[in-house]
Specification:
alpha/beta; six-stranded parallel beta sheet; 12 helices; binds 2-amino-3-ketobutyric acid; NAD(P)_epim/dehydratase
Length: 314
Amino acid sequence: MKKILIIGAGGQIGSELTTYLRGIYGSRNVVATDVRECKALGADGPFEVLDALNATSVASVVARHEIDTIFNLVALLSAVGERNPQMAWHVNIGALMNSLEVARQHHCALFTPSSIGAFGPSSPKVRTPQDTVMQPTTIYGICKVTGEMLGNYYHHKYGVDTRSIRFPGIISNVTLPGGGTTDYAVEIYYEAIRSGRYTCAVPHDVYMDMIYMPDVLRACVELMEADPARLRHRNSFNIASMSFTPDIIAAEIRKRIPSFTMDFNIDPVKEEIARSWPDSLDDTCAREEWGWRPEWDLSRMTDDMLAAIRSRTA
Ligand code: AKB
């Protein structure tokens, strides 16, 4: 049985991944940590407050719990990163370097998410290939490309079992994302239920890849359980499940809530970032090397998101 450490468990992915992994591997075998106290994560399994930037503290948690697999989920996202690039580099790369080093010293496997943000305006826009030009124009993307290269380096030089996925914008109804360019695709559902209208910061016609949280959780486990002999790539795999614009998601909501309206107040930073990212990714390598298949599309996700938010606000 794996003994798992989640660093940054209080965020959008971590809060759901902790519960999901505890369901598979047993509550006692999944240690959740975050820089802040998270009562909910401590309710059904071990939780510790941990500063991912403190290498000694990270190593001590790994040793004390005899951890063999680490999920490093610490990240300042794309839009917030542009407000403080120095801080974004310090946090994103600092947490990653500490995770890589502790994984090397304690013989742990390491999962770190990358992102569609690792691509930039000079990457092919449609069905962006697995291996292609990567010249991101955000500090977030620069951290992600650096992280991918560091993951490869630790794998080839030290034999660390590093694995990673380039996530699209993640849509979920448990913990809100914060400071991302794709956040609109979560907020729009909450506002559709709350007020029946939404003001979008991203232009109406910009395509970005998105994915529903249940597919994210399954992808994390499937990649970490994959036979290493089949993995020609390590850091990091393109995955895809749906690609849409603000107009398309609004139309999908309007099929269920005909009175729903959307207007725009464009955030120039988000617009520039969104236009620099791919419209859609080619996920052939993930399909071939570890059997990736998405299960959710925009229509099913919209039904599920609206039902979940309604049931919580009723
Ligand atoms: C962001 O918008 O910054 C993130 C991402 C796509 O990595 N959701």
